[in-house]
Amino acid sequence: MPEKLSKSFGKKLRILRKSKKLSQEELAEKANLHPTYIGVIERGEQSATLDTVEKLAGALQIKEKDLFYFSSHHEDLIKEEILARLAGQSSKKLQKILDIIKALDDK
Which helix (H) or strand (E) holds 105? Predict the structure, then answer.
């Protein structure tokens, strides 16, 4: 049976929040939401409204649609977290990361 949308959304929100190195409280402050509400959403206990989705996306500096890309495969989740962590990095840092990846491929 497929996972409930609210659970998938919550997992995605948690991944994106952590990739931005934000606590639930920090995200709540940036999104003008109550901190406990962030936890409720991340656990999938309650669905976010469209207004809340808009606030969360703004606070995370992403597009709303990025909150709705879900994957059930572990490898895809890892790739998704890597991409989320790369967002907003400088060109210099991205080049260093690419060099590390190339070095891993050589082994």
Answer: helix 91-106
Question: What is each CA distance from 37 to 24, 40, 46, 106, in whole angstroms?
Answer: 9, 5, 9, 46
Alpha carbon 12 to its chain's center: 5
**What tens digit of pLDDT does each residue of 58-96 get?**
999 999 998 988 766 667 777 777 887 787 788 999 999
Q: How far apart are CA 11 and CA 29, in angstroms?
A: 20
Q: What is the pTM of this model?
A: 0.69
Q: How far is CA 6 from each of CA 18, 49, 56, 70, 95, rounded to the nearest angstrom?
A: 18, 11, 15, 11, 36
SS3 (DSSP) at 45: coil
Amino acid at 24: Q
pLDDT digits (tens, 9 = 90+) for 95-106: 998 899 888 887
